[in-house]
Automatic annotation (TrEMBL):
Domain Aminoglycoside phosphotransferase: 41-276
Record's protein name: Aminoglycoside phosphotransferase
InterPro entries reported in the protein's UniProt record: Aminoglycoside_PTrfase, Kinase-like_dom_sf, Pseudomonas-type_ThrB
Organism of provenance: Aestuariivirga litoralis
UniProt keywords, alphabetically: Transferase
Annotated transmembrane regions: none
Protein family (similarity comment): Belongs to the pseudomonas-type ThrB family.
Top-level taxon in the UniProt lineage: Bacteria
Length: 336
């Protein structure tokens, strides 16, 4: 049998769709409920429609990225954020056996896939061409509220999530999203510029430190695709990458894939204004936001290479690597 990750993309999608349909039997859903692929990124997300008009979202987890306990930890935090009124987050649905995290085996896969079903959240994803002033200010305020909650929340003893530090993001020893050195279109000259930039990021973050006031539990992926705008409400979805990192990293992720756009500095100012409604920002915090934007950009170069089988990373490819070069040069001029 051919390993799943060696199959053609269309065949992988067919198998994942079959698995998603079989997963529906694990939940109290009516007959005739259907599944339609919405997004393929770290995970595969399906829109689930019942004949009576009810709707849910099913997340099929990527093999080997998160453990059952890590997924349960993610859900525990997101549920408490919603229950506490801190942020509007998707509500997970218990399976017929009472568990939130379900497991679906498939003979064509090396191991069962974990799945989670959520209530459907209304709203639209903002685009970079939209008027994002309000969205970024609201997002900064929500991020600060989440940071306050994370500092005070009594986590379950079994709680476990990734740590996103310099080594696990840009290091050489098994970074979570792969090595930036393996970025699409990399060559010797590009690697040398990237390396100088990465070294500078490392020095600045070492000086900034990982004290409790600067480093803790965060969403880690607060980009536009993980927001839903529903009237005046900004909803936060997809906590799959949440973990322990610098709080100011949450200021960088909203501009993911658009770091080069001219409006980014203004949008970050609106994010900071929203954040200050809840928490103060020190001069040191503000000074390192460009470092976190640069870290995120290089981290995404690695992510694209390690997820190149999916359509969105494939569409970015070497162009994203090349587009990072002027950002590296600008960062080195400003901070080197």
């Amino acid at each position: 049998m051919t390993a799943f990750n060696l199959l053609a993309h269309d065949e992988q999608m067919r198998i994942l769709h079959d698995l998603a349909l079989r997963a529906l039997a694990l939940y109290p859903l009516p007959p005739g409920t259907t599944a339609k692929l919405l997004n393929l990124s770290e995970n595969a997300t399906y829109r689930i429609d019942a004949p009576d008009g009810r709707r849910w979202a099913l997340r099929v987890h990527r093999d080997g990225y998160q453990s059952d306990m890590a997924i349960a930890s993610e859900l525990a935090w997101a549920v408490d954020l919603r229950r506490s009124g801190i942020a509007v987050t998707p509500n997970p649905i218990h399976g017929r056996d009472g568990a939130l995290v379900q497991s679906v085996p498939d003979a064509r896969m090396a191991s069962p896939r974990r799945v989670v079903l959520f209530d459907w959240e209304t709203g639209a994803e903002p685009g970079i061409t939209d008027n994002l002033t309000h969205s970024f200010a609201a997002l900064g305020e929500i991020a600060a509220r989440m940071h306050v909650h994370a500092r005070r929340w009594q986590r379950p003893q079994w709680f476990t999530r990734h740590t996103w530090n310099f080594d696990t993001a840009l290091g050489e020893d098994r970074p979570h999203w792969g090595r930036w050195r393996d970025g699409i279109g990399m060559d010797g000259e590009k690697r040398r510029l990237f390396q100088r930039t990465v070294d500078l990021i490392g020095r600045r973050l070492a000086a900034y430190g990982m004290g409790r006031e600067r480093f803790g539990l965060i969403h880690s992926d607060l980009r536009l695709a993980n927001l839903l705008i529903d009237g005046s409400t900004v909803k936060v979805i997809d906590f799959d990458d949440c973990g322990f990192s610098w709080y100011m990293y949450d200021a960088a992720t909203p501009v993911s894939f658009y770091e080069h756009e001219p409006q980014v500095p203004e949008l970050i100012e609106h994010w900071k204004a929203g954040y200050r409604k809840v928490l103060p920002l020190s001069q040191e915090d503000e000074a390192e936001i460009p470092t976190f934007v640069m870290l995120r950009r290089i981290l995404l170069v690695a992510w694209i290479a390690s997820h190149i089988e999916a359509e969105f990373p494939k569409s970015l490819g070497a162009g994203y690597t090349d587009g990072t070069l002027p950002l590296c040069e600008d960062y080195m001029r400003r901070f080197g």
